[in-house]
Amino acid sequence: MSAVPPLATARLALEPLAAAHAAEAYAPFADPALYRYMLGEPPASVDALREHFARLVAGSGRDDELWANWLVRRLDDRALVGWHQATVTVPTASIAWVTFPAHRQRGYAREAAAAVIAWLAREGVRDVEAQSDERNVASRNTAEGLGFVPDAESIPETLRGEATVDRVYRLKLD
Question: What is the pTM of this model?
Answer without folding.
Answer: 0.95
